[in-house]
């Protein structure tokens, strides 16, 4: 049986593009997540996590929901700076999160914006073993006490 170099080239190219596509989508943090309020247990919004060229993760709100019995929040009224009075949909709430070089399930160095209070918190996160839950620990700078927020992957 005669081998065709053109066939081998096409097969090799096809394998490489498939591997590249798999690698681009295999990042467990990248994708759509539901945010769960730690105080009420309700899902408040959907966010999309993306990774930039510097390997930093950020999350942007793509959908908001209100807690039953509470006033719906449409804009970041208590935010300061460029986020002041901006619509929640499209607002970036998590920035600068990077993977811990010693643990592929830990992420550090982030900043979390709470649209309700307008406060900014230091953030670190842990991807749970099933890959479907992200626990974000946020705290004020210099404080050991903080909050744990759970995001569930869609």
From TrEMBL:
Residues 31-152 form the DUF2147 domain. Gene3D superfamilies: 2.40.128.520. It holds the Pfam family DUF2147. Residues 1-23 form the signal peptide. The keyword Metal-binding does not apply. Keywords: Signal. InterPro entries: DUF2147. This is DUF2147 domain-containing protein.
């Amino acid at each position: 049986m005669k081998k065709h170099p053109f066939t081998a080239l096409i097969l090799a190219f096809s394998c490489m593009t498939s591997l590249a596509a798999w690698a681009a989508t295999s990042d467990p943090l990248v994708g759509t997540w539901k945010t769960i309020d730690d105080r009420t247990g309700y899902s408040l919004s959907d966010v999309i996590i993306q990774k930039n060229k510097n390997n930093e993760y950020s999350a942007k709100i793509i959908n908001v929901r209100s807690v039953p019995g509470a006033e719906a929040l449409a804009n970041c009224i208590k935010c300061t700076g460029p986020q002041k009075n901006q619509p929640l949909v499209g607002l970036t709430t998590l920035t600068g999160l990077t993977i811990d070089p010693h643990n592929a399930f830990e992420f550090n160095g982030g900043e979390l914006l709470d649209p309700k209070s307008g406060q900014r918190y230091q953030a670190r996160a842990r991807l749970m073993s099933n890959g479907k839950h992200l626990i974000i620990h946020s705290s004020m700078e210099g404080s050991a006490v903080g909050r744990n927020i759970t995001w569930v992957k869609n």
